[in-house]
């Protein structure tokens, strides 16, 4: 995943490029339209896989549409008004935001700490750096299933370990906060190393002489970390926050596979860890097969992501204003 | 050298053709090089068709049968099937439909081939009447599926755990322990007092479903929806009675609280953590699969408390999207023939819905080695002909999910029985309205 920090085009080429003589209208058409042709693939693919499904989902969300039914009826905004009054929907919004918060904050702090360790002169440095990425290479489904077993009520290893130190077993799957923690552990296990490597790459771009100068001034390691490393990593931290936001709000596989057995899409008997995407699936597919209602959930999820993204942009603006001039310039590329 | 490039060209062409063949072999269900037709059969759980496929393929050399979804959970199977049908692509040539979902599929019969157009009418006598009718649309004009099994009820129990608790282990004597559900609870309390380290039963949800189907079958013949498709969870005495009995089981602390079909449930089988499980005939295959060969001979089957009941059972249908409808229909007729029912029963235990098969010595005299040589044919077969089916309404699956889920919250101590009942009613209404 390449990070394009500066979205502005490079220096514009000089105008008045010499054209081959004697080519007439064909070369004019070529010069005028072929650039569109060159950029067309992106727009065609986006239209087919991005814009069209988005519009179609909206169209579906305005109907009472049974997935197997043949003639959906137009009901206008009814799905949306019902959804806004649907307690289960808001419950899943809270779950999603809650899991997002308790997974992302420790994750990024841990990643920062790991990156700092990996940035030192270690033996087998490349080995360690690769090792932190290994969890990210494993399949999400496999991770979720293994964690689902680890956090089992009666046969799970976590409760067994707690029992060894005299703590009663926890109902990881039917206690709201405990299930959030378990799912966050899964997310963090998979993504901490990935973020650590991004931080590490940014850390290596910080000139060594700044640390040397600080050391001469008598700053210890911790002081160097907080006064040099962290401020200079600001754009990278923002990038990681945004990527985590997008991933966190769309969380599906981990909580879905964390639960097993009958009706796992519910995320626990009282919907303890049902995320928004799971609620969407539950309505659009089994057991309700209400395609219209599910589509309305999808659109509100889209709205929620837009709102969170807007908040992100505001925060970035404020942080960007306080940053050093050379890093402040980078704020343009947020994605 | 002019021959060299030409030869190379030929090689490239050949490779390209080969690649095309390979891709077409993967992307469509047309058969590979040997010219055979591949029929895909989509199932869940254990249908026990392995032997029958082999027989059919031997008799029909032009057909290759592939089964998908064996051992899977119905909860995961049904949304997939619905998506395939909605998308018009992806479903097998033959698909299994569970009775609880049949009503939803029957509401949109265009997705399936009308078996009446293909000479199925003459097979009517091969099925119990209500089983045949379940596959028929409301207007009686289209037959969507031919019946496979019915879920005649019994109670499976572990003889080793019963011996440890000082209870009788012989199936006749065990059956005498619990003529009614209160007797079953009383036995459970004795079992619990013996501290065997195992729970008396697996999950209150499974037990609830057994009781509600039994009481409803014996009363009006419907549970969550009446026969005019009105939601009656709140007013149907059969549902409330089953709820109260289940609450008594939970209050007595008899449930192991292993969420049905979860990883823990499977582990609990393996580690012999519960002593009884309500078992419709098809459940015997599930128990054998979950508890594994090391538990062979430790299970036995007694009669179910209360009186009879039916849980589950399926039909086989041919989606209209199938490219080999004629061959698929032929296969469905074979698998649902009396001989097909007998073959499946012998392999994995689903109980035939064909009177001929039920009367066949192969069923009547059948025993199951895994269940201590229990005479399964006799135990399940006897009640099957007089089974009282329960009517399932339009959103049956969603409503059932809500009610069972309310049982689960009480079982886990998250809700009091009263709160749970209120939840069940409110959520069932919400589910039915969606």
* Percentage of residues in helical conformation of chain B: 40-55%
Total of helices of chain B: 19
CATH class of the largest domain in chain B: Alpha Beta
Reading the helices and strands of chain B in chain order gives HEHEHEHHEEEHHHEHHHEHEEHHEHHHHH
Sheet having the most strands of chain B:
5 strands, mixed
Biggest interface, residues from each chain = A-B, 33 and 40 residues
Strand content of chain B: 5-15%
**Quick one: how many beta strands of chain A?**
2
- Element order, helices and strands of chain A? HEEHHHHHHHHHHHHH
Strand order across the largest sheet of chain A = 1-2
In the sheet with the most strands of chain B, the strands line up as: 2-1-3-10-4
Which terms summarize this structure?
A: 335 residues, mainly alpha, 2 domains, B: 434 residues, alpha/beta, D-Maltodextrin-Binding Protein, domain 2, four-stranded mixed sheet, globular, disordered N terminus
What does this structure look like?
The complex is a heterodimer of chains A (335) and B (434). Chain A has 335 residues and is mostly helical. Chain A has 14 helices and two strands. In chain A, strands 1-2 form a two-stranded antiparallel ribbon. In chain A, helix 5 (140-150) packs across helix 7 (176-204) and helix 12 (276-284) packs antiparallel against helix 13. The longest helix of chain A has 38 residues, at 24-61. Chain B is an alpha/beta fold and 434 residues long. Chain B has two domains: 34-150 and 313-364, Periplasmic binding protein-like II (D-Maltodextrin-Binding Protein, domain 2); 153-311 and 377-433, Periplasmic binding protein-like II (D-Maltodextrin-Binding Protein, domain 2). Chain B has 19 helices and eleven strands. Chain B has helices spanning 3-27, 50-59, 74-87, 99-106, 129-134, 159-164, 171-177, 181-193, 204-218, 237-251, 263-270, 283-291, 325-335, 338-348, 355-359, 361-364, 376-384, 396-411, 417-433; strands at residues 37-42, 63-68, 94-98, 145-147, 149-150, 153-158, 199-201, 274-280, 299-302, 314-317, 351-352. Chain B has a five-stranded mixed sheet with strand order 2-1-3-10-4. A four-stranded mixed sheet of chain B has the order 7-8-6-9. Chain B is globular, with a radius of gyration of 24 Å. Chains A and B meet through helix 5 of A and helix 3, helix 11 and helix 18 of B.
